[in-house]
Design brief:
single chain, 46% helix, 248 residues
Length: 248
């Protein structure tokens, strides 16, 4: 076996063992619970824009974007725009290495003026377009599908309203656009693993969350599987059970 394959096998075995280590997984959940009370995810930015994500998930998304090399990344939920900038910059790197081109489409019910301006003035804006409106509104869905026409490799990121009903509606609306071998990533499934006092006065919570929506959706959509290897290697992630790979 050549050294490159040997190292890949070693990493695969490392991840398998992490997946079986219940103590280290429990420790990771405790860490997430305790740091969430200090708004840990708010502390990071990407190329100057707040991203509100765990660095671990940012690394995972980098790996997926390089693997898939999408023509289009569709993201629901924009906030400060850091995730759009992140995705666009990854596509810029892919293009510089392979010559392939890609763009990012962001959807949000309320794109605040100062955030829109900051995104539009950013050097990565050349790869970004935005739609303001509810991600589950019929006219918005139609606009997204129009944008997706002719795209061969599409990656989906769902990160807007985190209630069960909203995320399930987003999955029903957009997951089908995911190309085979690509991913539909549902963020903040971690909500379902957090105690109520950590979530504060949010409208979502245990049993009414992105994770509960994922499990409901998968009951009738076997074209997707949960890629457990991602959360096993990350340990610290906002998306346990949320990395959905389309297999057929």
């Amino acid at each position: 076996m050549n050294p490159i394959e040997a190292f890949k096998n070693e990493v695969t075995e490392n991840i398998r063992q992490l997946g079986e280590d219940k103590d280290v997984q429990a420790l990771s959940r405790i860490w997430s619970r305790e740091t969430n009370q200090h708004k840990y995810t708010y502390n990071f930015s990407w190329l100057g824009r707040p991203i509100i994500q765990y660095p671990q998930d940012m690394v995972a998304m980098q790996e997926l974007i390089w693997e898939v090399k999408p023509d289009l990344i569709i993201e629901t939920g924009i906030a400060h725009g850091g995730s759009l900038i992140f995705s666009a910059s990854m596509l810029e790197l892919v293009a510089s290495c392979t010559g392939s081109e890609g763009e990012v489409l962001g959807v949000d019910i309320d794109i605040r003026t100062h955030n829109r301006q900051a995104i539009e003035e950013h050097p990565m804006s050349k790869r970004i377009s935005m739609i303001q409106g509810s991600s589950i509104a019929t006219d918005v869905i139609a606009q997204v599908f129009e944008k997706a026409k002719g795209k061969k490799r599409i990656l989906i990121i769902l990160d807007s309203n985190h209630t069960h009903d909203h995320v399930l509606a987003e999955l029903k609306a957009y997951a089908s656009l995911t190309s085979v071998g690509s991913y539909c990533v549902v963020f903040d499934t971690l909500i379902d693993d957090m105690p109520k006092h950590v979530l504060g006065d949010r409208t979502w919570g245990h049993g009414d969350s992105p994770k509960s929506a994922v499990h409901e959706y998968l009951k009738s959509h076997n074209e997707f599987v949960i890629d457990k290897s991602i959360e096993h290697k990350l340990l610290i992630t906002v998306a346990p059970d949320g990395y959905l790979k389309r297999v057929h």
